[in-house]
Structures are given as structure tokens and as C-alpha cells.
Amino acid sequence: MAPPSNADTKSVKPFATKGERDLIQELIALQRNKSTGREYAKDLKKFFNSLYGEDPTPQLVTQFLQTDRSSAMTYVLRYKASLIDDELKEATVNRRLAAIKALIKYAYEVGQCEWILTNVKSEKVKAYRDTTGITPEAFKKMLNIPDRETLRGKRDYAMLRLLWANALRREEISRCNIEDLDLEARTLSIYGKGRGTQKENIELHYKTCDALQDWLCARKELDIKQPLFISWRPQHGHRLTGDGIRKIVVKIASAAGISKIVSPHRIRHSSVTAALDASKGDVRSVQKLSRHASLDTLMIYDDNRTNAQGKITAMLEDLV
Questions:
Q1: Where do the structural domains in the chain lie, given as residue ranges?
Q2: Looking at residue 129, what is its pLDDT?
Q3: Chain segment 65-108, per-residue pLDDT in tens
Q4: To 5 degrees, how large is the angle CA 36–CA 40–CA 41?
Q5: pLDDT at 320
Q6: Pairing of strands 199-203, 181-182
Q7: Nearest-CA neighbor of 95 among 38, 57, 39?
Q8: Phi-psi region of 257 (alpha: psi -120 to 50; beta: other; left: phi over 0)
């Protein structure tokens, strides 16, 4: 069964009533992580455009959810096949499928759909291919780029210190407020990945604390409910987003003459790898820094760091 064409869609009367629920907006509103909600919105828009040739409306969503399960399964599997044909990365395919399944699951739970799709399998994602990042020497060059005599330079320097010494993710930094920072105790409360509304304290080094204090003193913000990092124009300052942090890091790395594209996550890779080097592969201690839920993930870092496969290959070659 082929997905309905534009003509088919226009010839079918929508199932909607005047006060129809907007299930996509309800789903987005329920997401604790706002970036997840934004990704759901974009991915569902792509799915409905592929299926019906137009952006999702409450009427189109209802129309899809009120098809029979077999037809819906066919539509989703064909959509998945088209994504694979377009050579999208496995993680991208899985994210788009997750958005569709999340919508269907939510609709089922609130009585707006009579079936769920449990047999749509995700693509197998390969583990991190490159976890090495950049060297500490290269990162030192980045630290020398911000002009610490300026407000923007103080902010960027403090942010780089946080990224490196604590292997933080960009969203973990973006969500912090001034009140989350305790300079006396040298701690920062963050919303860790996958921990919902539960904050956790991380310990800061004095160099990072000094940089943060320098930034906050120059900024002169008295309201501790304000974001820890804002746009560089304080009179028009707003929370620095995760993407804003990424753009700053990319620009600084380029100015430092680093040829590799450096993102906040690349710095996280760099920090974890450097920590494993410095601790001689003490993965359990480094796990406290990286906060990876699975030790297996850190073993991938360690294998890449030591080039275990290459060493074994060399040993085998020496035997013959």
C-alpha cells in the first residue's frame, strides 16, 4: 500500500472536529528537555510532509492516527526506507522514528489512537568512531584566544575552562543559572543528561572558579536567577543556547589555527581521552568525570586511545 498522495489527502474529509486536540503540541509540552521537543517538532514535520505533502495539522495527525495499524506500519516502514535510501546517518534515522513512535504512544495513552507500533526497529548505531578530540596543547591555544580584558573574552574563557576541566555537555552549561554556582564550595549544580529534573553537583577546580568569578564580577548581575552565561551584550543579554556555545567554540578553534572542526562535544571527547591518559586508563575514576551511565562507553574511549587493535595486529605480524 502506497502512502496517500496529495490528491488523496485533499479528497478525504478530515476526521477533525472544531475543538480538535493538537497532539503534537501536547507531546512537545510534556518534554522536560526543550531541545527534545524542538527536535520532535522538526522530525514530525518532515514525516507528515513526506506522507501527505504538507505540514502536520491536528486534522492530518488525527487522519493518520485513525488509519488501521497495518497501513500505518506500512507508511512508517516506507518512510524509514526512504531515509536509508537518502543515506542519512543511523542516529538521524532513529531520531526521526523515535519522534513518530513517541507521538503514537502518547496518542494511544490519551485515547486518541487504538494501536501502537512496537515492531519498527531502530537502525544499529556504530559506537563512537573518533573519540580522540584534540590534544591538551591544542586546547591551550584555544584558551589564549579570548581577550580577557573584555566582557566577551572573560565569558568565553570561563566557558572554555568549564568545558575542558569538567567534560560538560553544551546543554548542561546552557541551562545553568548563577545560583547554581557556589564559588566558596567550588561546586556547580547541573542538569545531567538523562537525569530529568534531578540536579547533581560537580566539583570545580580553582582555575575555573577564578575565571567564573572574573566573568561574573565584570558582568555585575545581581539577580542570581539569571543565566550563568548570556550573550555578550549585557544590556540585551539572554541565555546563551547550546547552539550559541557551539558557534563560539568553533570560532575560537578556527582562530587558534586548529584544522579539525572543534565542537563542545569534541572538547568533551578531548577531556575524557586526556583524563584516561593522565590516569593511565583508570576508567572507573574517569567515569566520575564523564558521568557516562555505562562503563562500556568509556572502554571505547580507552580502546581508541591505546589503539588496542593496531597493537595486536602488529604482534600478529611479528609472529610470521
A1: 6-109, 136-312
A2: 59
A3: 999 999 999 999 999 999 988 888 888 888 999 999 999 999 99
A4: 120
A5: 61
A6: unpaired
A7: 39
A8: left
Distance CA(103)–CA(42), nearest Å, equals 13
The CB-side HSE value for 298 (13 A sphere, CA atoms) comes to: 21
Residue 176: CB partners within 8 Å, gap ≥ 6?
Answer: 188, 189, 190, 227, 228, 229
Q: Give the model confidence (pLDDT) of 204-215 as tens digits.
A: 999 999 999 999
Closest CA to 95 of 122, 60, 67, 66: 122
Q: Counting beta carbons within 10 angstroms of the beta carbon of residue 240, is it exposed (0 to 12), middle (13 to 18) or buried (19 or more)?
A: buried
Distance of alpha carbon 298 from alpha carbon 286, whole angstroms: 8
Residues 6+ apart with CB under 8 A from 233: none
Question: What is the dotted CATH code of the domain comprising 136-312?
Answer: 1.10.443.10
Q: Rounded to 5 degrees, what are φ and ψ at 199?
A: -85, 155
For residue 185 the three cell numbers come to 564550595
Give the chain's radius of gyration (CA, Å): 24
Q: Quote the CA–CA distance of 195 and 135 in Å, as a whole number.
A: 30
The residue assigned the cell 526512504 is 82
For residue 242, CA distances in Å to 168, 169, 175, 231, 254 come to 12, 9, 9, 12, 19
CA dist 194 and 33 (Å) reads 9
d(CA 154, CA 216): 9
Structure confidence at residue 237 as a pLDDT band (50, 70, 90): confident
pLDDT band, very low/low/confident/very high, at 15 (cuts 50, 70, 90):
very low
CA 254 – CA 260 distance, rounded (Å): 9
What are residue 225's DSSP bridge partners?
none
Overall average pLDDT of the 259-264 stretch: 90
